[in-house]
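can u do me a favor
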């Protein structure tokens, strides 16, 4: 991908009209991650059926425009995928789908990847299963939860 210095049309579109904003009641998995440095927080909800297919995904993001756009795109990319396939929705895949992000905004897409991983991890824990290739969430959830409440 060539060096991107400004927001693509797709980024602007997903920022202005984010898809799948909200919550899923009784979600199969919920993941919240934050970036302590910029203070942005993202929460992802997954609805996964008995076959391990993601039927729905919603998000809430307290963050910058790129964080909103990457969460929005990430939800679109994981819906309809199996849990294993969803692991391929990396921050790079999200950025590519958005036609790139400026370099200083790359970390925002990492938040989207990690929020999905955290939600998958929650799903796996609730169902007593192991998802091959999935690492435990990297962020301190307790800390982000506190921030999340403060922001309400
Ligand atoms: Fe923190 Fe974008 S500046 S996620």
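np, heres the sequence
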């Amino acid at each position: 991908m060539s060096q991107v210095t400004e927001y693509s049309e797709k980024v602007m579109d997903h920022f202005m009209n984010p898809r799948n904003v909200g919550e899923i009641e009784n979600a199969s998995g919920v993941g919240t991650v934050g970036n302590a440095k910029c203070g942005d927080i993202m929460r992802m909800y997954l609805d996964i059926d008995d076959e391990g297919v993601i039927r729905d995904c919603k998000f809430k993001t307290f963050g910058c425009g790129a964080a909103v756009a990457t969460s929005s795109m990430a939800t679109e990319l994981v819906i309809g995928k199996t849990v294993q396939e969803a692991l391929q929705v990396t921050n790079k895949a999200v950025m590519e789908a958005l036609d790139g992000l400026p370099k200083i905004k790359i970390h925002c897409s990492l938040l989207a990847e990690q929020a999905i991983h955290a939600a998958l991890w929650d799903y796996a824990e609730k169902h007593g299963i192991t998802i091959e290739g999935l690492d435990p969430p990297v962020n301190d959830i307790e800390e982000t939860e506190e921030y999340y409440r403060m922001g309400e």
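Residues 30 and 45 are 5 Å apart (CA to CA). hope that helps!!
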